[in-house]
Amino acid sequence: MDLSSIKKLTDSVSTLYYGSDLERKIAEATSTKAWGASGTQLQEIAEATHDYGQFQVVMKAIWARFSNPSLTWRQIYKTLILLEALVRLGSSRVVEEARQHLYEIKRLMDYRCVEEGQDHGINVREKARVLVDFLNDDDKIREEREKARKNAGKFRSYVSNEGSGGGGGGSYDSYDSYDRSRNDDRSRYDDRSRNEDRSRYDDRSRNE
């Protein structure tokens, strides 16, 4: 059996065990290993969220990990790190969905795990608290996503030079769409306020 055949067989076995390439990346980023996911790993998963189908795969994996009682504290902690990175780097849909699941993240603020007298749960509790505060701060999210948008070109250039192909060169329109959606909401609110003011003014004028 030549090297190419061995690689194909290995990939097939890996796909059966972990699923797709994206699911393997998520599994690696949230593994039980003592070291964290690399910046490149996090960026590639974030890139995938710009495709709606892959976005669903990523988010489903995250919520499944938060609700899986068999996972170690380290896997929960690394899943929180992944989610925080996706809020900064991924599609704007990540922000909205994370807010919809805020209760699940808040639950982790009470996470407990004591091993050999050492409280490992404190790492999860603190990271969950930081993430909840982050998700409740529009200005901070906008600032961090703008930083990510500016650095996106550098990352794609690096990936291109490495010849790895990265995460498919996803579009970063969603960074701007998050701000546009917030601005649209403000604009609609301002328009309604002006119209209500005019209506009240006209009513008073007619009554006078």
What does this structure look like?
It is built from ten helices and two strands, in the order αααααααββααα. 26% of the residues are buried. With 208 residues, the chain is mainly α. β1 (114-115) and β2 form a beta hairpin. It is globular and about 45 Å long.
Give the SSE layout.
Elements: H1 3-18, H2 21-29, H3 39-48, H4 52-66, H5 73-89, H6 92-100, H7 102-107, E1 114-115, E2 118-119, H8 121-135, H9 138-162, H10 173-207
Antiparallel strand pairs: 1-2
Helix pairs in contact: 2-3, 3-5, 5-8, 9-10
Note the main attributes of this structure.
208 residues, mainly alpha, two-stranded antiparallel ribbon, globular
**Morphology:** globular
Radius of gyration, rounded? 22 Å
Distance between the termini: 95 Å
Helix tally equals 10
Order of helices and strands: HHHHHHHEEHHH
Structural class label: mainly alpha
Task: Say what oligomer this is.
Answer: single chain
Strand content: under 5%
Approximately how much helix is present in the residues? over 70%
Spatial ordering of strands, largest sheet: 1-2
Mean pLDDT: 77
* Total beta strands: 2
Low-confidence stretches: 6-17, 155-189
Main sheet? 2 strands, antiparallel
